[in-house]
Amino acid sequence: MPQLIRNHALADDRFTLVRDAETLADLPDGVPVIVPLSLWLERRGALIARGDIGVWLAPADHPGALADDLERLQVIAIDFPQFTDGRGYSHARLLRDRYHYAGELRAIGDIARDQLYYLLQCGFDAFLIPDGRDARGALDAFADFSDGYQSTTARTPWFRRRQAVATPGDVWFPCS
Amino acid sequence: MYRYDPFDQRLVDERVAQFRDQTRRFLIGELSEDEFRPLRLQNGLYIQRHAPMFRISIPYGMLSSKQLRMLARIARVYDRGYGHFSTRQNLQLNWPRLEDVPDMLADLASVEMHAIQTSGNDVRNITSDHFAGVAQDEIVDPRPYCELIRQWAALHPEFSYLPRKFKIAITGATNDRTAVWLHDVGLVLVRNDAGEIGFRVLAGGGMGRTPIIGHVIREFLPRAEILNYLDAILRTYNRFGRRDNKWKARIKILVKERTPQQFARDVDDEWSHLQGGVATVPDAEFARLDTYFTVPPYQAFAGDDSGHKAAVADNRAFGNWVKRNVHAHKVPGYAIVTLSLKRPGVPPGDVTSDQMDAIADLADRYSFGEVSASHEQNLILRDVRQADLFDVWTQLKPLGLATPNIGLLTDIVCCPGGDFCSLANAKSIPIAEAITRRFDDLDYLHDIGEIDLNMSGCMNACGQHHIGHIGVLGVDKSGSEWYQVSIGGAQGNDASLGKVIGPSFAAIDMPDVIARLIETYIEQRHADERFIDTVRRIGIEPFKERVYATTD
């Protein structure tokens, strides 16, 4: 079973990820599901009527397609078919920073511990670790870096926070 | 130069610990080769023809003597006692052991250095003007801006899995020395009519398989907006750059397919959401960075040193060296000295650990303890008193670092090629060596004058052959090595791409081919006309005719 990490801890996953679903009949009964964007756009009303619902985005999908639905979704998942395809990092930032999505943002697909820190910084708070990978060990990755320079979803740029403790440069001329 | 504060140091230390653990997990089989590859590439580690190749970042080419001594030590302890300065101002080691790389990174971190993002599909080392801060034609010192952007690029969470590598060059001088038009993004520091500092932003340039001169996508970007605007460019590229074909994945293809005008609008649209936001750089941050790049304690001189002038007049060999390897400095009585890493018997850009130590000593004694690396694969003592030039030259000669050939035919820019690199189609170093030996007559070399000869072992163009006045590209034809020759390329303000003169040549013919090109130039040139000027005036046909008439 894939293992879910949510809010820096192992967690139970009450959602079922449905990779291929062209109609509502393809969905399992009685469990909350995460459906492809295409199905959501076609059958939004019926899916809301089912109860808690999530949508997953493929790398080529536009996160803006969900801009009007954010409050209806309990989960937005972003798929990484290969971890080297980094489009999902930008999608996450758009969802969080531009569209102000506040629900669960889940990384799915080829997710491993070595990507978790950057994913976290881009606004993901849940990670579905595939079978065969050490999800518990992956928790350590959140502490890989204590901070960073850039503006991210999780922090302001260091130069804004450094202002308070600004020190002049240590000018260095060894032979002067 | 920039010095790490505890924050900078901690990030680099954490990076070392992270990579140490990744290497450990790879060696015990927890990480597969496919999982480990992007991680090691983001730490500068390739698996090459004979051994790993390890690329150390030299941010915008600036080194302290202390750092240079550490590079010497690392090359001595973990490698074979030499390194190779690359065309992106980095240092490459060709024989490290994978198991040693975490320790090498720790040694680098101890002198405020790293190998972060020297490879991989991420933002690479920022390159800049090797005369930054000392050039006479400088409008704005680019180094504080380079450091700002180095920090922005380092460990960027959103842009570490881009469609392809991403190279940024920054210049602040009237004359471009960074090949700024041939980068994914080129930034030219300018002042507007109100005297405010900003950037002219170029995008979509590059070499490689599809060489393209960049396009101006914004004439004046206020400096405070630079990180917002770079985020907008990178986000646009990260989302829409092609990922289906490695050879079409650079930003230049996106810019071309969208058209530069539309790409600029795409970026503006993204930027409109970021403009004025948290990543807007406050003046206080520019002021803070400026404090690291203050003017060193120069002595006051009224003008040129009279003893130096006399020595130039008295000693022809010294005079030749001064003519080629010494450049004018912005401060009276000082000079910029280029140490040539190009001489017979040594691959272009190679330097031994002993030489690095000696250069560090010279930098301490004569040049405020700082050295820069150029993208032409030479090293520079930035601040030498004219009165010391004769002493410096005298000490450089026995080190083999005083070849008076900067800007001349034998100042060849060359990638490691098929001798080392697993990507290469053909060897480049032996061709460079054969040409260097063929043109060993110094008087003839000086008579030929300024000419850029660039050589790449494959179409990735690490030797920047597209912008060589003469460019040589190694190609593979049914399993044997051939060389395609182009002429008319140039870096600088009037950058141009070379044109291929015709079918490629066997290795053994290459010195003759170069000789025919040079003879054609000598016959056709007007007074004081450089090779590139002659090519531009008469076109490639006369060169082509001469070369193919004599090799048939």
Task: List key phrases describing it.
heterodimer; A: 176 residues; alpha/beta; TIM Barrel; eight-stranded mixed sheet; 6 helices; B: 552 residues; alpha+beta; Sulfite Reductase Hemoprotein, domain 1; Sulfite Reductase Hemoprotein, domain 2; globular
Please provide a written account of the structure.
The complex is a heterodimer of chains A (176) and B (552). Chain A is α/β, with parallel strands linked by helices and 176 residues long. Chain A has helices at 37-42, 44-49, 87-98, 113-121, 135-138, 158-162; strands spanning 3-6, 9-11, 16-17, 33-36, 53-57, 75-80, 104-109, 126-129. The N and C termini of chain A lie far apart (65 Å). In chain A, 24% of the residues lie in helices and 19% in strands. Chain A has one domain: Alpha-Beta Barrel (TIM Barrel), CATH 3.20.20.70. Chain B has 4 domains: 6-109, Sulfite Reductase Hemoprotein, domain 2 (Alpha-Beta Complex), CATH 3.90.480; 127-290, Sulfite Reductase Hemoprotein, domain 1 (2-Layer Sandwich), CATH 3.30.413.10; 306-399, Alpha-Beta Complex (Sulfite Reductase Hemoprotein, domain 2), CATH 3.90.480; 413-551, Sulfite Reductase Hemoprotein, domain 1 (2-Layer Sandwich). Chain B contains 18 helices and 21 strands. In chain B, strands 16, 17, 18, 19, 20 and 21 form a 6-stranded mixed sheet that branches. Chain B has a 5-stranded antiparallel sheet with strand order 1-2-5-4-13. A 5-stranded antiparallel sheet of chain B has the order 3-14-15-12-11. In chain B, β18 and β19 form a beta hairpin. Classes of the chains: A alpha/beta (176), B alpha+beta (552).
